[in-house]
């Protein structure tokens, strides 16, 4: 039994020695190059080149860039105006309908048919105007958001003109697909400050 343990220890020491030799000999051996493709400095670990990936919190950008807030307020004002107009039209329609109900008993069949036709046309007109306004508001909102996204991308191209980052992601409500975010890669504050300055120059 003692002899077996002695032999086993010798084998283990020999195995460790072989692994030690293989490890250090492989680390010293040159990397095989593919024909016609010299090894570039870009093949090094990306972490050695700094933060290649950054992210911005898009909700914070929308809440803290003055120009974007103004555009959002304009959209909200248009939506409130459309809602108020629809409310006024609906109230007038209800008043006209109630007036008809009160007078209907004293009308001839022809008069009732005529008044009911007017009410039906009025109701259809109100709904048609409402649908048209909703479509117009949706188109305007979509166009405004596209313009904001375009200006944001244009700014980020200028912001990253030195190619510090290979990718800049946007995170926020419904966009948070990254499982981990290092706060060192958060450039939201810089983007907000830069966008405010950029829009101030353009708005003057």
Describe the protein.
About 70% of the residues lie in helices and about 5% in strands. By secondary structure, the protein is mostly helical. Helix 2 runs parallel beside helix 5 (about 190-204), helix 3 (about 65-105) runs antiparallel to helix 4 (about 110-160) and helix 4 crosses helix 5 (about 190-204). The protein has one domain: 2-Layer Sandwich (Protein Binding, DinI Protein, Chain A). The model is unreliable at about 1-50 (pLDDT under 50). It starts with a helix and ends with a helix.
Radius of gyration: 36 Å
Order of helices and strands: HEHHHEH
Summed up, the domain count is 1
Order of strands in the sheet with most strands: 1-2
Q: What is the CA–CA distance across the termini?
A: 93 Å
In short:
It is built from 5 helices and 2 strands. The chain is mainly alpha-helical.
Annotation keywords:
disordered N terminus; mainly alpha; 68% helix; Protein Binding, DinI Protein, Chain A; rod-shaped; 204 residues; 5 helices; two-stranded parallel ribbon
